[in-house]
Amino acid sequence: MILGSLIYPAIGDICKDPKIDANSYTTVDGMVISDVACISEFSVDCNANKDFILIADKQGRQLPAVKSLDNRKYQISWTEDTENFYGGEHGVKVYDEETYAAVKKAYRNDEDVGNIPSAFFISLYHRGIYYGPWVSTEFVATAISVLLFYIAYSAKADLVS
């Protein structure tokens, strides 16, 4: 009983009511990329003075949260296919080490992971993918050149006749 009361506080130190400050970035240039890179950097302010191992889950993909040199900043990054990644709000659920073990077990047993509470949710906004202008600049330059040639040729024909 005494041993159990000493071990529980050591492993049961959970971040209660975390305060999250997140900044996100996504690539948008569809002319040169085939996948959209998503990066979310966040800091966790917690009432417990402990470094947490955090793991994000993006539709069954495990995304480890990498801790920066500053003890309270983490970064999660992943890629998405440009054809399936729409503009708007996206996000990932972030779990601590213990709850992510339950998530892995639920995936392994084909159970619903919606019942497992995450530590917090990080949202990011994607503007959409830019595939370039609707009309290329080469086409516009050629069209203007042809128009100027027509105007000049017509003016010359009027002067000659």
From TrEMBL:
Q: What is the membrane topology listed in the Swiss-Prot or TrEMBL record? A: Single-pass type I membrane protein
Going by the UniProt record, its keywords in alphabetical order are:
Disulfide bond, Endoplasmic reticulum, Isopeptide bond, Membrane, Signal, Transmembrane, Transmembrane helix, Ubl conjugation
The cross-references to Pfam families, in alphabetical order and at most eight, read:
TRAP-delta (PF05404)
Localization in the cell: Endoplasmic reticulum membrane
Check the record and name the InterPro entries matching this protein: TRAP-delta
Q: Which GO terms describe its cellular component?
A: endoplasmic reticulum membrane
- List all membrane-crossing ranges: 129-153
Q: How does it assemble?
A: Heterotetramer of TRAP-alpha, TRAP-beta, TRAP-delta and TRAP-gamma.
Q: PANTHER family, alphabetically?
A: TRANSLOCON-ASSOCIATED PROTEIN SUBUNIT DELTA, TRANSLOCON-ASSOCIATED PROTEIN, DELTA SUBUNIT
| Family classification | Belongs to the TRAP-delta family.
What role does it play?
TRAP proteins are part of a complex whose function is to bind calcium to the ER membrane and thereby regulate the retention of ER resident proteins.
Query: This protein is called what?
Result: Translocon-associated protein subunit delta
